Amino acid sequence: MFEGQCWWITGASSGIGEGLSRALAARGASIILSGRNVGALEAVARDCADSLVLPFEATDFDLIAGLVERAWSWRGRVDALVNNAGITQRSLAVDTGFSVYQKIIAVDLLAPIALTQALLPRMVGAGSGRIVGISSVAGIVGSPLRSAYSAAKHGLIGYHDSVRAENEHLGINVHVVAPGSVRTNVSKNALTADGSRRGVSDSAIDNGMPPAEAAEAMLAAIEAGKREIVLATGAELDAAVLRRQDPEALFELMSAVVRAGYAKEMATDSGKV
Known about the structure:
Rossmann fold, 7-stranded parallel β-sheet, 48% helix, globular, alpha/beta, 10 helices, 12% strand
């Protein structure tokens, strides 16, 4: 399925994006690697036999049209786009500055929308294409200390679901992936209430699924044709399922977790999800 295809991956310099890039390259795909860290992208490219390093800042919206042109011209098409780049937070809504919401929503929601909107007409014109949105369990569950991130990731699911509904009959396959804890730097890079970098990880993230394993599971589910892929286990999977089956029970559970001191525990990195 993947051999000979051209896949464009944002946030490809580390974590899930890096894992997907390596897994797809091993399957014979051509990879367009995007992100901000050119050195890290080039390191990933060295392990991908056929790759193009196409760095950019996700919110440089004025550059999108030119980037899409370059990406499409590289192999004469883009078979699949993975909207993966993103940033999270660790702060209570009552303490969080509006600028944090602006930044996270710009990176996690508006940036993938901008890129997809620029690429989608070319895919429709070609009669085929695949779009993969990397959301989160926090895009299904309103997670404490992640109000901006949850807002953006909920929006990402809604956007991709609508694009699927409108374009599936035109040959466009759309998948949404909602990972739980994956062993990345996402928590270290999370924004705090004032917009500064958190700088420390969570034990849940440190003990999460390895990115390479997550990538393999995602590709297997995509190959199987699954439109929504909840890539989580344990309490995270239970919360995602409960949101669909008994939302009132989930709302009470989340409130109880906060009443029990979740924010303070996170501040001291207790390792509780």
